């Protein structure tokens, strides 16, 4: 029994980590008044970038760490493009995020085929230790909470989201504050994509994020855009995913396995529907 519970806890933590990181960054950017639905694409680009660098590096213990660093750079680059278009050029954030998701899906598919030469070929890279990024995620949770609620910059960031005109009237640069929040989101989504490819897997497949970015958006709603709430919500989804794997292992023939696969997403959808009407403090519109 103890082994089963330990296994469930470890599976919960590892499955929740990519979602936790993506949702944490999105929560910060939404606090600044920018909703980035393109985090799915950011994670996908980060995953491919990490695997590509890891595959071309020397086969040493350092290779997956170089890949993780490259994943972060890839996430930051795509998020910077989003920030430039949405914050500086005034493009609609929802349209830009949608375009980034489509771009990421196509670009990574083409780049993967260029890397391996055959769309059906598989390539394996060294993996990160499973504990590495979850430990870093814990540090980032504490950092995000302290930054958001215990620093002057965090106060300004929240003001930029809730009352941008008032923030600008006291001399704060709303654009710079939103850039800082989005870059933090790029960092966390880069880590999420890198861990997904280099920690939970040891390869890259087309569309491997499989909607995790959109699940992260729902987790932000359930967690009320608070670092701790978002973290607990992500762990809840991870627990549901771990539980469905356990249920499948029991071999319950009376219930179709597709039900177990859909269970975590169904629970997330119900939770998002339950909490969404209760959130009266959405970020103010620009």
UniProtKB/TrEMBL annotation:
GO CC annotation terms, alphabetical: plasma membrane
Organism (species): Chloracidobacterium thermophilum (strain B)
Pfam families: BPD_transp_2 (PF02653)
Compartments (UniProt record): Cell membrane
UniProt GO molecular function: transmembrane transporter activity
Residues spanning the membrane: 37-58, 65-87, 93-111, 123-148, 179-197, 204-222, 228-247, 259-276
Protein name, entry field: Putative ABC-type transport system, permease component
Listed InterPro entries: ABC_transp_permease
Keyword annotations from UniProtKB, A to Z: Cell membrane, Membrane, Transmembrane, Transmembrane helix
Topology term for the membrane: Multi-pass membrane protein
Source organism superkingdom: Bacteria
């Amino acid at each position: 029994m103890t082994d089963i519970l330990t296994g469930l806890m470890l599976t919960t933590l590892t499955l929740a980590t990519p979602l936790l990181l993506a949702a944490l960054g999105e929560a910060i950017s939404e606090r600044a008044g920018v909703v980035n639905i393109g985090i799915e694409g950011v994670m996908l680009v980060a995953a491919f970038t990490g695997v590509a660098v890891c595959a071309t590096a020397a086969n040493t213990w350092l290779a997956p760490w170089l890949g993780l660093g490259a994943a972060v750079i890839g996430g930051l680059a795509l998020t910077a493009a989003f920030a430039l278009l949405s914050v500086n050029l005034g493009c609609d954030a929802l349209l830009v995020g949608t375009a980034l998701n489509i771009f990421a899906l196509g670009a990574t598919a083409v780049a993967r085929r260029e890397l391996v030469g055959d769309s059906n070929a598989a390539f394996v890279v060294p993996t990160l230790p499973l504990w590495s990024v979850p430990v870093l995620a814990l540090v980032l949770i504490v950092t995000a909470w302290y930054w958001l609620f215990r620093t002057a910059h965090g106060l300004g960031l929240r003001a930029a989201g809730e009352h941008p005109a008032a923030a600008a009237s006291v001399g704060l640069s709303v654009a710079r504050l939103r850039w800082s929040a989005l870059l933090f989101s790029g960092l966390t989504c880069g880590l999420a994509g890198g861990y997904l490819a280099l920690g939970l897997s040891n390869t890259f497949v087309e569309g491997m994020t499989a909607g995790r970015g959109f699940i992260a958006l729902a987790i932000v709603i359930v967690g009320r855009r608070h670092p701790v709430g978002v973290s607990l919500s992500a762990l809840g989804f991870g627990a549901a995913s771990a539980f469905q794997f356990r249920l499948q292992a029991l071999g319950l023939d009376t219930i179709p396995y597709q039900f177990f696969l859909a269970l975590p997403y169904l629970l997330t959808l119900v939770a998002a529907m339950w909490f969404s009407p209760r959130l009266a403090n959405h970020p103010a519109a620009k």
